[in-house]
Amino acid sequence: MKKLKVTIIGYGGMGSFHAKLIQENPEVELHGIFDILESRQQAGEADGYSAYASLEEALNDASADTILIATPNDVHKEIAIQALEAGKHVICEKPVTLNSEELLEIMHTAKEMGRVFMVHQNRRWDSDFQMVKDLYEKRKIGEIFHIESRVQGANGIPGDWRHLKAHGGGMLLDWGVHLLDQLLYMIDSPLAKVAADLSYILGDEVDDGFISYLTFENGVTALVEVGTTNYVKLPRWYVKGTKGSAIIEDWNLNGKIVKQSGLEFVVAPKPIKAGQGLTKTMAPPSEEAIIKEKFEKVTTQMDPFYTNFAKVVRGESEPVVKNEEVYQLMKIIESIFKAAETGQIMDVREYSYSR
Ligand code: NAD
Fold first, then answer.
1. How far is the C-alpha of 52 from the C-alpha of 330, rounded, in Å?
2. Does the Cβ of 75 fall within 6 Å of ligand 1?
3. 342 C-alpha vs ligand 1 centroid, how far in Å?
4. Domain named GFO/IDH/MocA-like oxidoreductase: which ranges (predicted)?
């Protein structure tokens, strides 16, 4: 089978990560790289890849069929459109663009040129997310009615361009895109409302974190939080169902499930001393009332993204990451910015999708 020849534009952190992943996938091969920084061109060459002298040279090379965009966010649109117009298929890093309008322009060009455009929403394949998705779909703790999805660090906003609005910096457009995409992909009901607060603790012109509260039409609620000033972290996932609760602590997938044994209304908990008082409500449930389970770890590979992309190019498969979904995600992100700015709860029903 003919491998897809991929040229990476932007050989920074993520571009060089893609280079390694591409080497490991039998459907694709790395054809070359281009970066506007000479030092990154040299880094690519030192890693064994050939560097084009310019974007134009990369796009005019008829032997490459796919352009992978891993530049800062503000230039995704212009590179994507140029690449599509040059007849290339395109893989684009997230956030796809700075706003939904820019994505519409790209989708229009892709359609006109008959080329595939797919966004790298790679965290749909994350093991921690797949574990929660499995819990949700198989109703292992009953009907899940509340989900908390958090990523917290204490290193501030990384790098240079992520501090600047003009480059599409800030955490909502960074980690926020991943966490929101995961929830929209998993929950089988349209998103109805969003409320949000952005944080500017570090004094940057862009948000260094945010908290958003989502309400889905089926009643499921979700709290999404990204923080860069958290010296003590909360668990990556906290999930409540009608028959139990679950947590995943971290990316090592340490977690647990605690659920009802069926005797919860028979075996009363013993009151405990709490602070200066006594409580039965907040006492741990009696051992007979609960079952503690190991949260089975799931191992996922990144192969599915490139494999799916190659199949879409060959016309053998539907894209796992659909542009219409990404468009709705961008509309919802715009609503979250608006909710934070106005302090209002935004109705986002018209933008929602469900599988
Ligand atoms: P980075 O700063 O490490 O790398 C960006 C590179 O692009 C730099 O080497 C820079 O010189 C180059 N560049 C800038 N403008 C260019 C242009 N016009 N043409 C060619 N090269 C150009 O940034 P990064 O962390 O690698 O992020 C790049 C993209 O990848 C962003 O969109 C980011 O959101 C995304 N990203 C995605 C993930 C993920 O898991 N999906 C993780 C990290 C970053």
1. 32
2. yes
3. 31
4. 129-246
- The verdict on residue 193 lying in a domain is yes
- Evaluate: CB of 173 within 6 angstroms of ligand 1: no
Give the domain range for residue 164.
124-253+295-300+331-351
Helix (H, G, I), strand (E, B) or coil at 198: strand
Q: What span, in angstroms and rounded, lies between the C-alpha atoms of 332 and 295?
A: 31
**Where does 10-63 show beta strands of DSSP type E?**
28-34
pLDDT digits (tens, 9 = 90+) for 237-261: 999 999 999 999 999 999 999 999 9
Which residues lie closer than 8 Å to 83 by C-beta, 6 or more apart? 9, 59, 67, 69, 90
CB of 15 shorter than 6 A to ligand 1: yes
- For the chain, the average pLDDT equals 95
Predicted pLDDT at 265: 72
Residue 321 forms part of a structural domain: no
Given this model, what pLDDT does residue 16 score?
A: 98
